[in-house]
Amino acid sequence: RLHATDVTSSSFRLLWPKLLSQETGYYTLEYAPAADLARKRMQQVSGAHTSLVLGDLAPETTYEVALIPESNVHYFPPQTTRVTTLAEEISPVQVLISESGPHSFHVSWAPVLDSVVGYQVLYGPLPGNSVKVLEVDGRHNSTVVEHLAPNTTYLVTVTAIYRSGKEKSLSAKACTQEGERG
């Protein structure tokens, strides 16, 4: 049976039983996203092969795959399978600081990914090494950092924590406003 191994966010390896040989024919491989079969791609593979890596695929996408043995000796029915690529583990690509006041600012980030279980927002004044951490649920993409010193530059690091346990981070600098002059 046709099946897939080594599945990643952008590729997988197909394996199939040896139906043909170099002399008796070749395979036509057709694959397309299940949601958009019009975007079908085709590849021809020598009859000597029993595996092939398909690359350049979209993450978190189910592919319909058909292996058609083109034999000049026997008729073999097409073998089909469905393979779903993994979620892509990308770091936050944007950290935005807004609504900056003397004692707080708003931090938001993008993109929001289903594969993230939560975010950690680390912040501390520059220069300095006192760092505080805010835990943010994976469904949210912003938080407010409060109780800050006025007229201070902070380093803010957003870390995405993935279901797989991997972590990816991105940092930005934020400045609080000057306090009210009495």
Automatic annotation (TrEMBL):
Keyword Zinc appears in the UniProt entry: no
Domain of life of the source: Eukaryota
Key words, A-Z: Glycoprotein, Repeat, Secreted, Signal
CDD domains, per database record: FN3 (cd00063)
Fibronectin type-III domain segment(s): 1-89, 91-179
InterPro entries linked to this entry: ECM_Regulatory_Proteins (IPR050991), FN3_dom (IPR003961), FN3_sf (IPR036116), Ig-like_fold (IPR013783)
A GO cellular component entry from the record: extracellular region
Annotated localization: Secreted, Extracellular space
Pfam families: fn3 (PF00041)
Cross-referenced PROSITE patterns: FN3
Record keyword rRNA processing present: no
PANTHER family in alphabetical order: RECEPTOR-TYPE TYROSINE-PROTEIN PHOSPHATASE ETA-LIKE, TENASCIN
Protein name as it appears in the record: VWA1 protein
Name of the coding gene: Vwa1
